[in-house]
Amino acid sequence: ATPLSCSASPMRGPLLAAAGGAMPGAGGALARTIRAKLTAALQPTYLEVRDDSSRHGGPPGAETHFGVLVVSGRFAGLPLLQRHRLVHEALRAELAGPLHALQVTARTPEQWQSDPRVPPAPPCLGGSKRDP
């Protein structure tokens, strides 16, 4: 098995965390909250938090759009919808407030080991304030 590392991650955008080697203080307050809540709720063997906010036309430091990759044994035997519900439940307060969009990739450790590819972040369809 190949060891998992942040540098080998196919995720785009600023990488903010990885379980087992979390970077304290990386990212803004919301990124740190997302990382802490998902870690507490799901005890992931691997976790990445990606801030995609800058791709969506908000002001610098807005922290409104994120992608997460969560690899957890808690997902074993659960359909994808239930896995996403666990992530959303852990981030309920953030989704009701500052967090506008969340892309979730939820895998078991076995799934992640057999296929560590992550789907690309969806394009912004809301219209960037930076577009002409």
From TrEMBL:
Residues 106-132 are annotated as: Disordered. It holds the Pfam family BolA. It comes from the Eukaryota. GO terms for cellular component: mitochondrion. Coiled coil: none annotated. Belongs to the BolA/IbaG family. This is BOLA1 protein.
